[in-house]
Amino acid sequence: MILSEESESRVIEMAWEDRTPFEAIELQFGLSEPEVIRFMRKQLKPGSFKLWRARVSGRKTKHTKFRSSEVTRGYCPTQYKHR
């Protein structure tokens, strides 16, 4: 899948956000979790990628099915402008 520079930037931003699940990235950009991981490996410097992987590994908020029902998120009006 080829993403615009703006979409690439948004995927990276969403991947770093603690409360944005991989499912939201897949819904918006069509990238599954393994594809996001490959994308991040390609886009980030090795040290940044290691920090990101350590951060998201095992983080329940990055997976919708593991999230507590108490985890909610407010969206800004421009959040889904790519749809």
From TrEMBL:
InterPro entries cross-referenced by the UniProt entry: CHP03643
Superkingdom of origin: Bacteria
A GO molecular-function annotation: hydrolase activity
Keywords: Hydrolase
Protein name, entry field: Fumarylacetoacetate hydrolase
Originating species: Vibrio fortis
